[in-house]
Amino acid sequence: MLIKKLTVEDINHDLLKKIYHWRFNVYSKYFSNDFRPSYKNHIEFLNRAISSTNEIWFGLFIYRNNDEMSFAGCASIYNFKNSECEFGRLMISPSHLGHSYSRKLIFFIINYVKDQLSADRIKLVVKSDNIYATNVYISIGFLLTKTGKLNEYTLNVN
Ligand SMILES: CC(C)(COP(=O)(O)OP(=O)(O)OC[C@H]1O[C@@H](n2cnc3c(N)ncnc32)[C@H](O)[C@@H]1OP(=O)(O)O)[C@@H](O)C(=O)NCCC(=O)NCCS
To answer: What is the distance in A from the centroid of ligand 1 to the CA of 49?
Structure first.
């Protein structure tokens, strides 16, 4: 398994297609924003996001038998301000669910936030009926800070 910060060099059709497919086909019900961009807009959005200074994307890759890596998950942090950042876009490939890969990805990101951004807090929102993601966040130590259709969770990292 490899987890890394994504750069423009990592953006290829496999990665773009997977993120689009997971977000707008397989997992759309887990996200609150119903807007569905065209694939072309999605490519532009990701390229812009990954080059932005206020947003960082992370990728999780799994080694196949032949030593090739398969893109299997992602998440991002954004809106860095006042020692705080937001976390979101967490998705693990349907064929890789159930191995706690999301926890590994989130721990990697927490360390990145501490070491590279020197931020104190990570915030996220999650639909209140999204049990799978909520369980992951609680198991890591995120605390419920606002309730509603969307619940807000916060983790103090320092
Ligand atoms: C949240 C998410 C990343 C967790 O994935 P994960 O790290 O593989 O989850 P876990 O390893 O903790 O899985 C625990 C169990 O729940 C099951 N599970 C996890 N997510 C599932 C899903 N979306 N659908 C069905 N079952 C799921 C796993 O198969 C596993 O079952 P098992 O104990 O019988 O083996 C994943 O559910 C996902 O990508 N969800 C869609 C996107 C999403 O909700 N993002 C968060 C938005 S705030």
So the answer is: 25
Residues in the ligand 1 pocket, defined by CB under 6 Å: 27, 30, 90-92, 97-102, 126, 130, 132-133, 136
Contact partners, residue 104, CB within 8 Å, separation at least 6: 1, 3, 60
pTM for the structure as a whole: 0.97
In angstroms, the first-to-last Cα distance of the chain is 27
Q: How far apart are CA 148 and CA 125, in angstroms?
A: 10
- Helix (H) or strand (E) holding 139, with range, is helix 131-140
CA dist 109 and 116 (Å) reads: 10
Token pair for 39: 């694939």
Please state the separation of Cα 20 from the chain's center in Å: 13
For the cut 90, the answer to whether the pLDDT of residue 67 exceeds it is no
Q: Is the pLDDT of residue 64 over 90?
A: no
Tell me the two tokens of residue 94.
């349907």
- Given a cut of 80, whether residue 35 has pLDDT beyond it is yes
Please give the class, per CATH, of domain 3-156: alpha beta
Average pLDDT, the chain: 96
